[in-house]
Specification:
Shape: globular
Helix content: over 70%
Structural class: mainly alpha
Number of strands: 0
Strand content: under 5%
Radius of gyration: 19 Å
Distance between the termini: 13 Å
Number of helices: 13
Order of helices and strands: HHHHHHHHHHHHH
Length: 304
């Protein structure tokens, strides 16, 4: 049991390490691609990769299971990324970064409602959440003034809620007993399917000739194979082993990884505000988990 949980934590950490650096590839591609184009290409590539890696057909599913897959694809693949990208056109990136990090809080609330037998809320989670949010705010704003924009901020908040819905649905899907790659593949299928109507409302161009540029090709491969195919499998696997709440807490690390990548790759300055925010964010993550681990350890000791 403890070995499985260790694997779950490693899977979640690996996912976040990659997700925290995707902004670099996205920034490169935005020079010649629309956000909707990047989103569509990366998940189509991710879907094809999962089909190649694990071509086995999923056993017959029920209508309720298909609804869960469709809901996860709609929330976690299609709407989450669309709303996040649209929010960035209305409000500051720092606002979006902070607001999206509220996702673990929404996940905890939803898990308390829908996964009572699986997820338990403790005071440490909420204290850790507040500490982490202060740290994330320091990292995101880093001396800049807070500028509220109701439309953009509300869209970002809705995106965080949708990711929480995705986490809960993923936890339910893990109980179906199918292979993680099969379930992720099915979620991707529905995500891409729901994405197609959105292509007509945005300036989408198929124009694959742009990938003749090796830089663009390598970055979309990173997003498609790494950030999509690999990371959604490892994230869903972590949710299966740890539960929705524990896994979602790792979202706090995304701004921290982004800061480290910015300093190492883009040579951006590392300020004292960023350093303080990083320490607080890590402290919040550890605080959110600490008491839970202790109680689980006690239970395991009694069981022996």
């Amino acid at each position: 049991m403890e070995h499985n949980k260790a694997i779950g934590h490693v899977s979640a950490l690996l996912t976040i390490l990659i997700w925290g650096t995707t902004f670099i590839s996205t920034k490169v591609l935005l020079a010649d691609f629309q956000p909707i184009e990047i989103l569509f290409f990366r998940f189509v590539m991710g879907l094809l990769a999962l089909l190649i890696v694990y071509p086995h057909r999923m056993p017959k599913t029920t209508g309720r299971q298909e609804l869960s897959f469709a809901g996860a694809g709609l929330c976690g693949v299609c709407l989450y990324y669309l709303l996040e990208n649209i929010a960035l056109t209305y409000t500051m990136a720092s606002n979006v970064g902070v607001i999206i990090s509220v996702a673990p809080f929404f996940t905890a609330i939803l898990s308390h409602i829908f996964l009572k037998q699986d997820e338990k809320l403790r005071a440490n989670f909420f204290i850790g959440f507040l500490v982490a949010m202060v740290g994330i705010a320091l990292i995101s704003f880093n001396g800049s003034s807070l500028q509220l924009n109701p439309v953009g901020d509300l869209l970002a908040l809705l995106a965080a809620l949708l990711w929480a819905c995705y986490s809960i649905l993923t936890r339910k899907i893990s109980d179906f007993g199918y292979h993680t790659i099969q379930t992720t593949r099915r979620v991707f299928f529905y995500g891409v399917l729901f994405m197609i109507p959105a292509l007509f409302f945005f300036d989408f161009k198929l124009d694959l000739r742009r990938f003749a540029n090796l830089t663009y090709l390598l970055n979309i491969i990173f997003l498609g194979l790494g950030a999509s195919a690999l990371c959604f499998v490892t994230w869903n696997f972590a949710v299966k082993l740890l539960g929705a709440v524990k896994t979602s807490i790792y979202i706090y690390l995304v701004p921290v990884i982004t800061v480290v990548a910015s300093v190492l790759i883009l040579h951006e300055p590392f300020t004292w505000l960023t350093g303080t925010g990083t320490v607080l964010t890590l402290a919040g993550l550890l605080l959110s988990e600490r008491k839970q681990f202790r109680k689980e350890g006690n239970r395991n000791g009694l069981a022996k």
